[in-house]
Amino acid sequence: MEQVATAQSIWQKLKNKQPVVISGPCSAETELQVLETAIRLAKTGKVDMLRAGIWKPRTKPGMFEGIGTEGLAWLKKAKEISGLPLTVEVATAKHVEDSLKYGVDILWIGARTTVNPFSVQEVADALRGVDIPILVKNPINPDIELWLGGIERMAKVGLKQIGAIHRGFSNYGNTEFRNAPMWHLPIELKRRMPELPLICDPSHISGRRDNLLEIAQKAIDLDYDGIMLETHIDPDNAWSDAKQQITPEALGQLLDAIVWRQ
Ligand code: PEP
Ligand code: MN
């Protein structure tokens, strides 16, 4: 399939408030998994962009920490085959350098990185003079100034296309959501920076499959500019975030069930 969308067309869609749908596995695991996910997502006709974690910030050592740079070649191939542009999480200057080498279209900063100004600055410095959109996830703690600080660090190195991703805020113990949505925080962010595209990540807010639709619908009702949802060809056996991933076809059904804004 020919590539139809580009970082620029995705950015335009975000700015025009036509909700952008980003999907793909929590982690790139194998070449086959990445290619099959991309093909099945493209087949739904409802997905704008392919996401995948290449370097994974895990809570404990010994968990799967990402396939690393080799996975970027799989993603590049997936983009060629499916026509879906790519977005990847970056946490270091090396991640930025490698992602740019493999033609990643949009970068994102993860919640565990946004909490650390040294890391955010390292990523920002690696992007000086580069023209690429970047999305900054909220920090895991409910600190809106830190979130804004991350966004400001990107703006200060000259990046012009900056957006935010709301993925919820960490909790202690068993709670309804893996990460409390605290909807008032992204709403306040948007009040302070009205031009900033805002994307919701129901997968990391929920941590489960059964309420993804409800969270995604709320984001659309609140006028978000896009949603990012994790998908896997075999969700129960995913190497990370197995409980919250759904198949590409289930994503297609979820997207059909959303009442979109007119
Ligand atoms: C992810 O998107 O897979 C991820 C690691 O998310 P977060 O940074 O929100 O935890
Ligand atoms: Mn994940």
TrEMBL record:
Chain coiled-coil ranges: none
Major enzyme class: isomerase
Key words of the record: Transferase
Keyword Transferase belongs to the record: yes
Enzyme Commission number(s) from the entry: 5.4.99.5
Protein's name in the database: chorismate mutase
Taxonomic lineage of the native organism: Bacteria, Pseudomonadati, Bacteroidota, Chitinophagia, Chitinophagales
